[in-house]
Design brief:
The protein contains four helices and 13 strands. Helix 1 (13-31) packs antiparallel against helix 2 (43-66). It is globular. The chain has 297 residues and is of the alpha+beta class. The chain folds into two domains: 13-66; 84-296, Lipoprotein localisation LolA/LolB/LppX (outer membrane lipoprotein receptor (LolB), chain A, Clam).
């Protein structure tokens, strides 16, 4: 079953914490008496309320610290450094070896004002073609279905106008992420106009000019040859879009980041991937936009 078809719940650190946090909230609500209650003004009830608050807080801390939410340590191959040219050739070979990717994911979209929403998702990619398919839902209700190919970007959203207005910011943020994932592939690290900036140390950098005057920057870990941050710079040098990549794993011979975090003026979107597969056949219509999808500019 491909990642585009998976709609099951995900067993992950965030979901475990959410379940425990809902329990803590329910316990806190029982203890939190109304401030204008006659009983609430009595010392014994104030002491009881404070005790319950303390217990609820301690439960939350224990869950956060002991619930298995510590980020896993990366266990990926290291690279014996020789020179910049050899390093880039190795990275280009790695990128070209990925023909397809599919899996499930957890999306957290945060607006500039700090409001956030968490969505379940499924993703499929065909890096050689620059194709990305991303579906998202919440409580088994579809939120958006995004398809990106070389021919354009399509998004299917709810037809109801009120729901559509709520979903639109999330879908546009996801579209920006999809475009970045399609752009930041093997092509990002090759070409006669690619320039390497290496001052020594743990990281080195590549810079590649784009046709629209922007510059694509990649910050690369020297020991593992893994990209840790991508940036799109405006002609003025201002960072228009940035994406960090971490929690790399090696699976099926591929080294891949399991967490992406993209930031722009429109907000932030965090992606935690799960159950990914590489180079497995995808459905023939994996990158065919749904009938109700709209083509975006």
């Amino acid at each position: 079953m491909s990642g585009v078809q998976r709609l099951g719940a995900h067993r992950n650190c965030g979901a475990r914490f959410d379940r425990h946090f809902s329990i803590c909230n329910s316990q806190f609500a029982i203890c939190n008496l109304p401030s204008d209650s006659t009983q609430a003004r009595r010392p014994e009830f104030r002491r009881r309320e404070n005790t319950c608050r303390l217990v609820a807080t301690l439960i939350g801390l224990v869950v956060a610290l002991a619930g298995g939410c510590a980020p896993p340590r990366e266990n990926i191959p290291t690279y014996a450094w020789t020179n910049d040219t050899a390093a880039l050739q190795t990275m280009q070979w790695r990128a070209q070896s990925i023909r397809t990717l599919s899996g499930t994911c957890l999306l957290t979209l945060t607006r500039p004002n700090g409001e956030s929403v968490r969505l379940d998702g499924a993703i499929a990619m065909a890096p050689p073609d620059g194709s990305v398919r991303l579906r998202a839902w919440k409580f088994n209700q579809a939120v958006f279905d995004l398809t990106l190919t070389r021919n354009g970007l399509w998004i299917e959203m709810p037809r109801d106008q009120s729901r559509r207005e709520r979903v639109l910011p999330a879908s546009l943020s996801a579209a920006q992420l999809a475009r970045a994932m399609a752009l930041f592939g093997g092509d990002a690290l090759q070409g006669s106009d690619l320039r390497v900036v290496d001052h020594g140390g743990r990281l080195f950098e590549t810079r590649k000019p784009l046709p629209d005057g922007q510059t694509m920057v990649a910050q690369i870990n020297r020991d593992t040859l893994t990209v840790r941050r991508y940036e799109l710079l405006a002609p003025s040098g201002k960072v228009q879009f940035a994406m960090t990549l971490d929690r790399y794993v090696q699976k099926q011979g591929v080294v891949w980041p399991m967490r992406l975090s993209a930031r722009s003026e429109s907000g932030r979107i965090d992606v935690e991937m799960h159950d990914i597969d590489f180079n497995t056949p995808l459905p023939p219509k994996a990158f065919v936009p749904p009938r109700g999808a709209e083509k975006m500019p």
